Structure formats: structure tokens, C-alpha cells
């Protein structure tokens, strides 16, 4: 599989009143036509990583080091002009709150048309035609009428469909999805997930899907990277991660989700709270909460151990499997 | 959690009047409509937020309410707490009607609520200790005793009072704030605690901690919970009985296992089928229903679900089906398909009751 996205040694630090080491030494790659899930709790750095891929973080207060390569282009070296043609055409993003992400003073049709005109140099009329086509692709009923609707005139699920239409209007190779179904009702969430799954296949896109919900990841991802305190602690195929997690945090996270837990039985929890990230981690960030912590966990940063083919965990207990 | 000395006095509980057999809370025909201001010449419209909702909560029980946004579950909670007046219906707390044999002040001691937004529901200018002690002081407890109680309760919810008592809400994490909210709710020694999406905003690992805590507190203080959530996994885990609401109405209720294993209403079935899979090899293939929940302004006539229901027949649009017993274990559903002899082609044949 060719690598569409290749991130290596990525560090993101926010400065200002206080310093936050949001992402630390992150390595990640995305293959062609692959759906990669970034799974983690709030503050684990998953959205920050996604935003760094599109350089959406505030310039003044962010320090980014490392390499971010998207389809052979160095994203961190792009100037503003290169960035603006890169965004929307090569990489596109959908957000958690479509009501905030869409422009409230333009109709849906105008917003999609604008993006087509800007990126593909087409006329406005052609842009409108593409907009109509896209609204049909995302299955918005009576699409023609919806072209002239403003975002506030639509329901939550419909707005999310419109945002997907906008993001895919210029046929990007990579779609970044930042918790796109979290704000939706259960019966609508599953519709949007299935729609994304279908469009991903139809368009042959690669997707990075950020979520905190393992159930959602199971529905859509091929591969999963579990994040904790700004680092990827484990990555591998969805099946491997769900069935046999290696890192104690991944294990705990899976155990504490309440799929079919018996009533009255105690839930397994991870004690304590995540670290503040006020300084760069120099040892295992999870050690203070880990049941299996040993003195050597606190001595240095655990190496990223290759546990199997395409599978790695950042834990001293992870043993590389020997091919038998 | 260690048993500490018992020098701390709690407020006395509102007396148990009716004994075990009497439901702690009885709700009959609860209704709340909000008028919507339209244009100058537009017809008057109303949001039927809660429409003729009846249920009861037994002592020591946990009742869950599930439904999507706009189904009226939070409005129901607010009506129960008398945070807003209801248009119609009775709320009977342990055999006593509020406003008649029970004052609002007493009701608030017997019933407390924890809200979803842990930050917005705490006064940012009070320390955590002051926030928890506030209620008991209003109810006549001396300042020193109330503060001692607050510290005791902080310990009970797993926050060390020496570390947390003097902090402000913005200085602690979401999970910790929700623990503070729970402690504050317990400060008046309530018998019923309404938890309105109390764990929904928390991360998964923290959510599990708080759910364990709720189970511990229930045992220790002999509490009864009304647990409102959109997360079906959590509701199944914590509830004994469950109410499923759709557009302001209860469409199905019963013991949680009965409802989960044999859902009688197509909406309940759709809700359950919409849960993301937990098995990578058995992903969901088809969405159970299409479209968004309709706007609760002027909901459709007849059965409110008929516009999204795959089994809708003409009779469904004509009149609303009533909650009807599905079995003998208290499982009821409001669907013509569950009512024998209703005239729906899928209704169970047999003698009409």
C-alpha cells in the first residue's frame, strides 16, 4: 500500500499563558483507500493531530516540529497560497458541529459552488450543478430545493450531510473527519456512518476518522491508532485492537466501555485522570494510572515496539512476536 | 471509601410515609406545551414537549428514560423538580401532592437533580465546599455543620476534602466536577435523585468511574434514581425499568431486559438497532430508520412515529395508540402492532380485551 500521509516525529506545543505539549513524537501513516481511526479521550491530542495535517492551528501560538508529508508534499513548508489550494482539493475536513462549520449567511448551494469555482476554476453555474449533484450523492431529499436553503433551515443530520457534500465537492483524496457523528442522535448517527462508509468506497478516498467512541470506530475503521497524552500508544488493525489490545491503556479503555456489562456488576475503570501535559513526557505518561507499572516505566520513554505486522505498542511489556 | 467518624450530622430525610409498597414517585398525565411565536399572521403553533406522560418509580428502584433530542426527557425531569410549572397532570411524591400535602421546600429536600453540564450547574464564585454547603444552610443548618457535611460528602464521592474543598469549579476536571454535583445533590439527604445525562459529557473511563460511584451511593444512602440518558448501553447497565420516549410521549416502558430482548414498539427496535456494533465482523449494514426525528412543533397526528415507521398503516395516522400491556411483567407499548384486535394487519390475532 502506498502511503498518502506520512507523519514522523511530530511534536506540537502550544505556548502562551501556559505551555501545553499537545502532541509528542507522533508517527502515523495512512494508506491509499484506508480508513484510519484516531481513538482517544478528550485532551489526548487526536483533534490537534488532525488539524496539524491541514495546518489549521493558530500560527502564533503553535510550535510544530517534525515531518508531515501528504502525497509527497511537505505540509509544514507550504506558504499560504499553496495551503489554500491544498485544503479542499487534496485534503478536506468535516467537523463535529456542522452548524458552526458552515457559513450561516450563504446558502448551501452557494458554499459548495464557491469551493468548486475556487479550486477547479469552473464557472459559477457549473459549480451550482456540481452542488446539486453532491447533495444527491449524500442523499438529501428534494436536493434542488435544498440548494437554496440556509444552514439554520436544516436539521442536524441534514446539515451534517450538507457538510459532507461540501467537503467532497472537489473530490479530495483524503477526508479528515473530526467526530462528525458525536453531536447527532443515535438513529441519525448510524445513517451518517453508513453514508460515509459508502462514499469512501465509491470515491476511493482515504479517511482519518477521529472519535472517542469505540462503537463508531468499529463501524467504519480499517485500522486504529489509540492516543493517550499526545502520543499514539498502540496501533494496528481494528480487529487486533478490539480483540487483543496490548497496551494497558487500550485494554482499560475497551474494558470500561459498557457494551453488555451485567447490571449490578462493577465496571472496570482506569483510576485517576490523564496528565496535564505541561511538560514534555520523559517517561511513560500512563504509568501513574497503570496497574502493571514497574520502576523501569518511569525511567525513560518506552520504545514503540513492533508487536506484529503493522502493529505497534508503546509499552515496556509489549513483546515483539516472533514469527513461528 | 472508608467509613469515617459519624459526628457529622446530615439533614433528616423527608419521612417515608407510605411504606415500601407505595411508589416513591407517581406521575399521571404530565403535560407541557410551549407556545411558539410565529410571524404576525402565522397560525399559532405549539411544541408538545411532554404530552400525557404517566409512570411511577418504586422505592429503591432505578428507572431509565431514553430517547433522542427533543423527545421531552429533560423537560420531564424539569417538570418533576418543579423548575417550571406543568400545564396538566399530577406529580405525587410518596403519596403526597406537591402544593397540597407537600410544600415545594420539602419536595426539594426529597428530590434532587444532577445536570449534564457540570460546569454551568455550579456557581463559579463559590468554592466547592461552599457550593455543597449552600443547600443545607438554606434549609436551616448552621454554617459549621454544613461545611463539615460538605467535607464528609466530598469524601463519599471520592474527592479528598483537604485537596478539593477550597478549590473553584474551573480548577477541577469534568469528572471531578460531576462528582461535586452529585455530592451537592446528596447534601439535602434526598430519597430520589434525578440524573439528567449526568455522565454523557464524560470520557469513557471517567464515565465508568462515576457509574460505579452512583451504584455505591445508591446502596449507602438507600437512594432511588431516575436516570435520563441517550446512551442505551448505560441505561441498560444501570436501570431496572426503562421508559422509551418519542416526541413527548412514552412509546414503551417495562423492565429493561424485557424491553431490550423483546422490543414491542418499532421505534424502540430502531433505537436498539442504531447502536454501533461491538463486533468488527458484524457491522451494521442498513440504517434501521431514515430521516431525522421530526420537529416537535405540531407533531404528526395519530401515532407520532408513523411518518418514519416501516409498518405504518392508515389507522396509525388516525388515532394515537394507547400504552397496552404486552406481557404480565409490566411491559407496555403504544403501538397498534402490539394491541390484539387493533385492526393493524400485524396485530396479534385473538380475543380483544
Automatic annotation (TrEMBL), chain B:
Keyword Glycoprotein included in the entry's annotation: no
Record CDD domains: ABC_NikE_OppD_transporters
E.C. designation(s): 7.4.2.10
Chief place where the protein resides: membrane
Keywords from the UniProt entry: ATP-binding, Cell inner membrane, Cell membrane, Hydrolase, Membrane, Nucleotide-binding, Repeat, Translocase, Transport
Boundaries of every ABC transporter domain copy: 25-272
UniProt GO MF annotations: ATP binding; ATP hydrolysis activity
One GO BP annotation of this record: transmembrane transport
Domain of life per record: Bacteria
InterPro entries referenced in this protein's UniProt entry, alphabetically: AAA+_ATPase, ABC_transp_ATP-bind, ABC_transporter-like_ATP-bd, ABC_transporter-like_CS, Oligopep_ABC_C, P-loop_NTPase
Compartments, as annotated in UniProt: Cell inner membrane
Segments of skewed composition (Pro residues): 290-300
Membrane topology annotation: Peripheral membrane protein
Ranges for region Disordered: 273-300
UniProt KW Transcription keyword: no
Catalytic activity: glutathione(out) + ATP + H2O = glutathione(in) + ADP + phosphate + H(+)
Cellular component, GO, one term: plasma membrane
Family to which the UniProt record says this protein belongs: Belongs to the ABC transporter superfamily. Glutathione importer (TC 3.A.1.5.11) family.
The protein's role, per its UniProt record: Involved in beta-(1-->2)glucan export. Transmembrane domains (TMD) form a pore in the inner membrane and the ATP-binding domain (NBD) is responsible for energy generation.
Subunit structure: The complex is composed of two ATP-binding proteins (GsiA), two transmembrane proteins (GsiC and GsiD) and a solute-binding protein (GsiB).
NCBIfam families, per the entry: oligo_HPY (TIGR01727)
Protein name in UniProt: Glutathione import ATP-binding protein GsiA
Amino acid at each position: 500500500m502506498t502511503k498518502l500521509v506520512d507523519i514522523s516525529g511530530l511534536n506540537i506545543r502550544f505556548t502562551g499563558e501556559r505551555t501545553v505539549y499537545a502532541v509528542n513524537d507522533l508517527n502515523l501513516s495512512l494508506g491509499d483507500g484506508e480508513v484510519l481511526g484516531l481513538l482517544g479521550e478528550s485532551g489526548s491530542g487526536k483533534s490537534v493531530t488532525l488539524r496539524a495535517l491541514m495546518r489549521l492551528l493558530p500560527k502564533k501560538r503553535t510550535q510544530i516540529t517534525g515531518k508531515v508529508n501528504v502525497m509527497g508534499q511537505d505540509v509544514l513548508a507550504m506558504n499560504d497560497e499553496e495551503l489554500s489550494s491544498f485544503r479542499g482539493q487534496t485534503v478536506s475536513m468535516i467537523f463535529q458541529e456542522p452548524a458552526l462549520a458552515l457559513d450561516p449567511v450563504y446558502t448551501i448551494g452557494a458554499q459548495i459552488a464557491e469551493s468548486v469555482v475556487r479550486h477547479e476554476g469552473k464557472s459559477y453555474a457549473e459549480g451550482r450543478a456540481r452542488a446539486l449533484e453532491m447533495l444527491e450523492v449524500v442523499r438529501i431529499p428534494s436536493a434542488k430545493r435544498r440548494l437554496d436553503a440556509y444552514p439554520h433551515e436544516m436539521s442536524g443530520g441534514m446539515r451534517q450531510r450538507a457538510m459532507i457534500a461540501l467537503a467532497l465537492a472537489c473530490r479530495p483524496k483524503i477526508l479528515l473527519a473530526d467526530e462528525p457523528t458525536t453531536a447527532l442522535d443515535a438513529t441519525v448517527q448510524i445513517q451518517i456512518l453508513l453514508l460515509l462508509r459508502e462514499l469512501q468506497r465509491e470515491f476511493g478516498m482515504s479517511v482519518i476518522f477521529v472519535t472517542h467512541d469505540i462503537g463508531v470506530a468499529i463501524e467504519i475503521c480499517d485500522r486504529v491508532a489509540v492516543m493517550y497524552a499526545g502520543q499514539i500508544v498502540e496501533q494496528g488493525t481494528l480487529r487486533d485492537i478490539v480483540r487483543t489490545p496490548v497496551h494497558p491503556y487500550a485494554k482499560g479503555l475497551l474494558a470500561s466501555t459498557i457494551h453488555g456489562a451485567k447490571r449490578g456488576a462493577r465496571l472496570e475503570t482506569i483510576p485517576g485522570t490523564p496528565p496535564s501535559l505541561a511538560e514534555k513526557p520523559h517517561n511513560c505518561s500512563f504509568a501513574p494510572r497503570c496497574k502493571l507499572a514497574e520502576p523501569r516505566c518511569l525511567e525513560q520513554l518506552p520504545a514503540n515496539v513492533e508487536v506484529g505486522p503493522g502493529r505497534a505498542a508503546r509499552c515496556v511489556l509489549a513483546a515483539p512476536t516472533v514469527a513461528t | 471509601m472508608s467509613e469515617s467518624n459519624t459526628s457529622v450530622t446530615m439533614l433528616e430525610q423527608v419521612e417515608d410515609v407510605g411504606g415500601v409498597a407505595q411508589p416513591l414517585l407517581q406521575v399521571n398525565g404530565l403535560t407541557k406545551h410551549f407556545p411558539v411565536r410565529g410571524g404576525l399572521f402565522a397560525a399559532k403553533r405549539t411544541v408538545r414537549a411532554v404530552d400525557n406522560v404517566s409512570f411511577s418509580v418504586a422505592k429503591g428502584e432505578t428507572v431509565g428514560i431514553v430517547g433522542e433530542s427533543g423527545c421531552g426527557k429533560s423537560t420531564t425531569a424539569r417538570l418533576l423538580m418543579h423548575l417550571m410549572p406543568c400545564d396538566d397532570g399530577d406529580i405525587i411524591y410518596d403519596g403526597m401532592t406537591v402544593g397540597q400535602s407537600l410544600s415545594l421546600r420539602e419536595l426539594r429536600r426529597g428530590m434532587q437533580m444532577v445536570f449534564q453540564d457540570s460546569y454551568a450547574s455550579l456557581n463559579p464564585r463559590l468554592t466547592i465546599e461552599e457550593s455543597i454547603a449552600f443547600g443545607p444552610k438554606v434549609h436551616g443548618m448552621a454554617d459549621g455543620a454544613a461545611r463539615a457535611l460538605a467535607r464528609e460528602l466530598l469524601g463519599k464521592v471520592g474527592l479528598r476534602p483537604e485537596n478539593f474543598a477550597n478549590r473553584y469549579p474551573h480548577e477541577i476536571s469534568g469528572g471531578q466536577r460531576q462528582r461535586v454535583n452529585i455530592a451537592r445533590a446528596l447534601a439535602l439527604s434526598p430519597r430520589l435523585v434525578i440524573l439528567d445525562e449526568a455522565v454523557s459529557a464524560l470520557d469513557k473511563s471517567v464515565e465508568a468511574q462515576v457509574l460505579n460511584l452512583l451504584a455505591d451511593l445508591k446502596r449507602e444512602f438507600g437512594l432511588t434514581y431516575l436516570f435520563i440518558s441517550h446512551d442505551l448501553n448505560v441505561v441498560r447497565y444501570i436501570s431496572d425499568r426503562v421508559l422509551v420516549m418519542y416526541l413527548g410521549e412514552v412509546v414503551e416502558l417495562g423492565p429493561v431486559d424485557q424491553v431490550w430482548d423483546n422490543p414491542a414498539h418499532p421505534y424502540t427496535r430502531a433505537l436498539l438497532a442504531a447502536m454501533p456494533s461491538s463486533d468488527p465482523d458484524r457491522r451494521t449494514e442498513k440504517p434501521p430508520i431514515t430521516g431525522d426525528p421530526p420537529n416537535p412543533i405540531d407533531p404528526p397526528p395519530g401515532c407520532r412515529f408513523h411518518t418514519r415507521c416501516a409498518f405504518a398503516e392508515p389507522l396509525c395516522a388516525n388515532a394515537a395508540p394507547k400504552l397496552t400491556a404486552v406481557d404480565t411483567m409490566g411491559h407496555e407499548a403504544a403501538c397498534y402492532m402490539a394491541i390484539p384486535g387493533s385492526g393493524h394487519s400485524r396485530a396479534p390475532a385473538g380475543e380483544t380485551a
